[in-house]
Amino acid sequence: MRLRVIIVGAVVALSGCGVGSRGGVATNNVSACAAVLPLAGQTLRHHGTLVRVHRLRRGQAAAILRALGHPLPTQRPRASTRKRPAREPKRCLLVYRGPYRRGSVPRAPNQHGRYAVVIARARHPAVVAVVLTDRLPRSVRR
């Protein structure tokens, strides 16, 4: 029996189970959000448990924030000579379970709730919005 366990362990280790073809580099949609995790933790003062991470498609960040009753922060339009419209930056959704008291998160000073919903830019990591809520929208619960 012990020999069987050793053989199975060796086969799994040599096959690179779960590593993929890039030698350990994550290549799925969530991997773009890995760089945002430390920043989100700092924003929430390392309080709460991470329960969900999603890479958002175009327009999803605005829809989620609208469903939570908060508008997406707008940026000033840049003077551009390009004819094509600017691409929306890659964004990530991170959901932490608290509880969060009023004033416990500096980016959401007048809010409280069981969940902290963090929207962040993936390419140049930055927190875009933080919303504290007791109920998650259906689009976030999936």
Task: Write up what this structure looks like.
It is a single chain. This protein is globular. It has a 4-stranded antiparallel sheet with strand order 1-2-3-4. Helices cover 23% and strands 25% of the residues. The chain has helices at residues 2-15, 37-43, 60-67, 138-141; strands spanning 49-56, 91-100, 113-121, 126-133. It has a domain at 33-71 and 90-142. It has 4 helices and 4 strands. By secondary structure, it is an alpha+beta fold.
Summarize the structure.
With 142 residues, the protein is of the alpha+beta class. It has helices at 2-15, 37-43, 60-67, 138-141; strands at 49-56, 91-100, 113-121, 126-133.
How do the strands and helices of this protein lay out in sequence?
Blueprint: H1 2-15, H2 37-43, E1 49-56, H3 60-67, E2 91-100, E3 113-121, E4 126-133, H4 138-141
Antiparallel strand pairs: 1-2, 2-3, 3-4
Oligomer: single chain
Helical amount among residues, as a percent range?
A: 10-25%
Give me the side-by-side strand order of the main sheet: 1-2-3-4
The count of helical stretches stands at 4
How much is the radius of gyration in Å?
A: 20 Å
E-strand count: 4
**What string gives the helices and strands in order?**
HHEHEEEH
**Distance from first to last alpha carbon:** 42 Å
Shape: globular
Key terms for this structure?
142 residues; single chain; alpha+beta; four-stranded antiparallel beta sheet; 4 strands
